[in-house]
């Protein structure tokens, strides 16, 4: 059971709080950050950690807990802010993001950070490992679900499609893949670099049950994820998002892939993200 | 166990024994059911094997997921594809995550002979030495292989085992006890010390016996444990000789030859070192094993010739 079980209004408030943390965390980073990717996924991770996931900070070794894998490891900053908000580690750690010998390195490291299930950062790794986790859970008769969040640019890595074949072949209906489809990657738009559309048809052809949602709307995310009931098929949710969502001068701008707010940008962003 | 055994058969029997004894071991293959000779395991435990198809990246990733779920996951497929095709999965998912996955690199070295260099694995030791956490072994005979696998299964952490692709005769007697890290001395003589890795240990032993018949006394040290490695123990074996020869069906760079060179330099051992194996920048020849080994001077005849040449340097 999720220890928070927040309703939609509370999730929206939580998402704003996490966004404010993301701004401060990146501003304090001595090594840059991935602000756009951090902000893009906020509603997804918030909905998971504060409503949907059957896991909690005091159950990180529970064999029946749900597993969340942050495959888009470069968005570690946003992930850390959510984990801190959920109580997996002290909030004070956030100001040490990417500092020397920090608990919070630039990409997730499970040996360093409570709550992190898998070291990621190189792309295309989360889904194959999630397949193994979901397969083990099915074989052991566990109720565990395995969630994995990928970017959309990340889907160009072929290992994802190897894993998709296996997930479908083994009928892993306890596997939920969420694509954070913000349509931007390091070098520009996914459409111009390597288009993945029609993405829904690709997943369907691989044997997945496919649904879509507004990935920056907690109501849409919760409604979609709670309605999943594919039996005998793995699930994919294409979450349509905006990179840098929530801050007007970051949203949709490719240059914020690897930029952090500075000076008056910090105050402007925090003002936009104030509770209403 | 018969006197000569294919190491994959040894592996499969170890798996059967482990599961029979309550170990939650899951082999993962990439269509490599014949390569791994896994049929007896499947007959004993019909629902346990995971076959992901011809897809090494997801083979390794899936093994990691199984291991994170409390199982002992063992990937079993051809070494060249395990090491090269899934290189980043081995580095990141297995090693960096420090997961309990056992990687069996089957038909390693130039076991595939005439199938040529796409199927040769002459870089696996050097690559695996560059990764953290993982232990690295190369058994030279069935008895040693069995003990290494039994150790690997009970060890909590990643292990790579380099497996030769031909039936190998027994080298050790029934008293042999494998100790991780310890090189084993198979022949003793200080005119030359030969260090050998994996199946070519047999070539080194045959060479030592022929050299002894010709009045030249050489040591043969089987270095089956690359990590952990008792470096002082190996240094002791390398001391007191003028000549050291390393022999491996692997590139001379980064494999056993490099290990020996490092230890000699670090310990101030001043003997001349000759590294036999695939030369710098080269590939193994495509051909049957006697031909390939002859071309690399890692067959017993080649080792004898190199040792005779070295000893004759002293006596001239």
Automatic annotation (TrEMBL), chain A:
Recorded superkingdom: Bacteria
UniProt keyword terms in alphabetical order: Thiamine pyrophosphate, Transferase
Family annotation (InterPro entries): THDP-binding, Transketolase_N
All residue ranges annotated as the Transketolase N-terminal domain in the record: 30-268
A GO term, aspect molecular function: transketolase activity
EC nos: 2.2.1.1
Matches recorded under CDD domains: TPP_TK (cd02012)
Cofactor (UniProt): thiamine diphosphate
Record family assignment: Belongs to the transketolase family.
Protein name: Transketolase
UniProtKB/TrEMBL annotation, chain B:
Broadest EC class assigned to this enzyme: transferase
Entry-linked Gene3D superfamilies: 3.40.50.920, 3.40.50.970
Any one Gene Ontology molecular-function term assigned to this protein's record: 1-deoxy-D-xylulose-5-phosphate synthase activity
EC number, as in UniProt: 2.2.1.7
Swiss-Prot/TrEMBL cofactor(s): thiamine diphosphate
Domain Transketolase-like pyrimidine-binding: from-to ranges: 5-170
Pfam families reported in the protein's UniProt record: Transket_pyr, Transketolase_C
Entry keywords, A to Z: Thiamine pyrophosphate, Transferase
Keyword Nucleotidyltransferase assigned: no
InterPro entries: PDH/Transketolase, THDP-binding, Transketo_C/PFOR_II, Transketolase-like_Pyr-bd, Transketolase_C
Similarity comment text for this entry: Belongs to the transketolase family.
Name the record gives this protein: 1-deoxy-D-xylulose-5-phosphate synthase
């Amino acid at each position: 059971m999720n220890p928070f079980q927040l309703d939609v209004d509370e999730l929206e408030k939580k998402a704003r709080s996490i966004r404010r943390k993301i701004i401060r965390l990146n501003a304090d980073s001595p090594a840059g950050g991935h602000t756009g990717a951090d902000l893009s996924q906020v509603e997804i991770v918030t909905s998971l950690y504060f409503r949907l996931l059957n896991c909690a900070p005091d159950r990180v070794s529970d064999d029946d807990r749900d597993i969340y894998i942050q495959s888009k490891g470069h968005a570690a900053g946003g992930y850390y802010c959510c984990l801190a908000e959920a109580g997996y580690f002290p909030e004070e750690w956030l100001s040490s993001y990417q500092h020397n010998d920090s608990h919070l390195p630039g990409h997730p490291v499970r040996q360093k950070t409570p709550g992190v299930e898998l070291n990621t950062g190189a792309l295309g790794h989360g889904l194959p490992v999630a397949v193994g986790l979901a397969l083990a859970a099915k074989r052991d008769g566990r109720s565990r679900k395995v969630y994995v969040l990928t970017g959309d640019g990340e889907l160009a890595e072929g290992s994802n499609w190897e894993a998709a074949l296996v997930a479908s072949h083994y009928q892993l209906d306890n596997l939920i893949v969420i694509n954070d489809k913000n349509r931007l990657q390091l070098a520009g738009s996914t459409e111009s670099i390597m288009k993945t559309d029609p993405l829904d048809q690709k997943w369907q052809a691989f044997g997945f049950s496919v649904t879509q949602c507004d990935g920056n709307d907690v109501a849409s995310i919760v409604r979609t994820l709670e309605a999943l009931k594919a039996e005998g098929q793995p699930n994919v949710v294409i979450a349509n998002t905006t990179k840098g969502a929530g801050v007007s001068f970051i949203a949709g701008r490719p240059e914020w892939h690897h930029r952090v707010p500075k000076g008056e940008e910090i105050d402007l962003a925090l003002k936009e993200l104030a509770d209403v | 166990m018969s006197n000569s055994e294919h190491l994959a058969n040894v592996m499969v029997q170890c798996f059967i024994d482990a599961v029979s004894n309550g170990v939650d071991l899951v082999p993962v293959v990439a269509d490599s059911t014949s390569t791994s000779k896994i049929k007896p395991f499947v007959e004993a435990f019909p629902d346990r094997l995971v076959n992901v198809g011809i897809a090494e990246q997801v083979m390794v990733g899936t093994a990691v997921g199984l291991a994170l779920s409390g199982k002992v996951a063992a990937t079993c497929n051809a070494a060249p594809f395990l090491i090269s095709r899934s290189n980043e999965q081995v580095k990141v998912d297995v090693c960096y995550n420090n997961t309990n996955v056992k990687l069996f690199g089957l038909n390693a070295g130039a076991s595939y002979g005439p199938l040529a260099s796409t199927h040769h694995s002459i870089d696996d030791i050097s690559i695996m030495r560059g990764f953290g956490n993982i232990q690295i072994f190369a058994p030279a005979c069935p008895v040693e292989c069995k003990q290494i696998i039994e150790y690997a299964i009970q060890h909590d952490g990643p292990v790579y085992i380099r497996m030769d692709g031909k039936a190998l005769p027994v080298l050790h007697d029934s008293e042999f006890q494998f100790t991780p890290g310890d090189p084993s001395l198979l022949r003793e003589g200080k005119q030359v010390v030969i260090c050998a890795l994996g199946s070519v240990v047999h070539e080194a032993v045959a060479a030592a016996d022929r050299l002894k018949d010709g009045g030249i006394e050489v040591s043969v040290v089987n270095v089956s444990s690359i990590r952990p490695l008792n470096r002082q123990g190996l240094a002791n074996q390398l001391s007191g000789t003028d000549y050291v020869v390393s022999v491996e069906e692997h590139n001379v760079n980064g494999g056993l030859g490099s290990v020996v060179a490092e230890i000699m330099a670090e310990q101030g051992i001043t003997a001349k070192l000759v590294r036999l194996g695939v030369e710098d920048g080269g590939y193994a020849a495509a051909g049957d094993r006697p031909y390939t080994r002859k071309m690399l001077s890692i067959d017993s005849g080649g080792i004898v010739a190199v040792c005779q040449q070295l000893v004759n340097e002293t006596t001239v």
